[in-house]
Specification:
Radius of gyration: 20 Å
Order of helices and strands: HEEEHEHEHEEH
Strand order of the largest sheet: 5-4-3-6-7
CATH architecture: 3-Layer(aba) Sandwich
Largest sheet: 5 strands, mixed
CATH class: Alpha Beta
Number of domains: 1
Structural class: alpha/beta
Shape: globular
CATH superfamily: Glutaredoxin
Number of strands: 7
Strand content: 15-25%
Helix content: 40-55%
């Protein structure tokens, strides 16, 4: 039996690994959202009871996926509190979907940085998978018609004005 050169074996293994990775990622790509797509409906539990996206039809909804270990989430919460307070009367609803596996982690975060908006918990991570979330935080702005207006990953102070502008433009006139 003749030995296969090492470089051929390495290339063959790399191709198998790459093909496997592409096959694994293919289902994820099918769930990714684009602007104009209908936002997947969800029903989750929160501290104030059941949270259903469908119940917010007719409102501008910012669905924000967050976790206790997420550094930028610590910056985004005060901004979202401010946006909810400023634009609630014009129809903005913010829903923060926590993805921590342990509720105590989320509770500790919320003790330090309270939320002035609706909270829901998804320890199984089903809703973030439906939305194609790949980073924390990720927010999805959903129009009153239930369609995706904007998808944004991450959070930094220099984005605040542009993100608020998008919210203002998407709300009905005062």
């Amino acid at each position: 039996m003749q030995a296969v050169p090492q470089h051929r074996t390495t290339r063959r293994v790399r191709r198998w690994v790459l093909a496997g990775a592409v096959a694994l990622l293919a289902p994820v790509a099918a769930f990714a959202l684009d602007r104009g797509d209908p936002a997947p409906d969800f029903t989750l539990q929160g501290p104030a009871g059941t949270v259903r996206l469908a119940d917010l039809q007719g409102k501008l909804v910012l669905v924000d996926f967050w976790a206790s270990w997420c550094g930028p989430c610590k910056q985004s919460f005060p901004w979202m509190n401010e946006m909810q307070a400023r634009y609630r009367d014009r129809g903005l609803r913010i829903v923060g979907v926590n993805v921590d596996r342990r509720a105590t982690d989320a509770d500790r975060f919320l003790e330090r940085i309270p939320a002035g908006f609706t909270l829901a918990f998804d320890a199984a991570g089903e809703v973030p998978r439906q939305y194609g979330v790949k980073a924390m935080p990720t927010s999805v702005l959903v129009g009153p018609d239930g369609r995706v207006l904007e998808i944004h990953s991450g959070f930094s102070d220099d984005e605040r004005a542009a993100r608020e502008q998008k919210i203002r433009q998407s709300l009905p006139p005062p």
